[in-house]
Design goal:
mainly alpha; Arc Repressor Mutant, subunit A
């Protein structure tokens, strides 16, 4: 189950049921090796600002080619994939750490609180603070 399927927000039960961390995109071993390298790079650099050109350099392709190949293989753009990775990590940190929202925001590559909150609310239907209050109470 991805964080967001077919443009719909996942339910709270889906987000928190079963595993501790939601699957960002369906797992597949069929990815082109260049896409797997790109995914590993994105996963390893969540806190960095990553441009499509940076990603293209990592896999030795043009920006247009890596974007097209990535979208074909995963069904989403590299930038959307990165946002989903960051949101999954933010959700995990909110649920399992005592870090402040500001610290989590920085650890997941956001320099602007407004963008972080907007993206988080798009996926989870709550602000990060509301999410933590609702789901970490015993």
């Amino acid at each position: 189950m991805s964080i967001k399927e077919e443009g719909k927000r996942a339910s709270r039960e889906t987000l928190l049921g079963g595993s501790e961390r939601p699957e960002v995109v369906p797992e597949s071993t069929a990815y082109d090796p260049r896409v797997r390298i790109a995914i590993e790079f994105l996963q390893s650099n969540l806190a960095r600002k990553i441009s499509l050109i940076d990603l293209a350099h990592v896999v030795n392709l043009s920006a247009a080619h890596v974007s097209r190949l990535f979208s074909i293989e995963t069904g989403i753009s590299p930038s959307e994939y990165l946002i989903r990775l960051r949101m999954g990590e933010a959700q995990h940190l909110l649920l399992t750490s005592l870090l402040s929202v500001k610290e989590i925001m920085a650890m997941t590559g956001y320099g602007n609180r407004g963008h972080f909150v907007t993206h988080f609310k798009r996926y989870f239907g709550l602000t990060p603070s509301e999410f933590r209050r609702r789901f970490t109470r015993s």
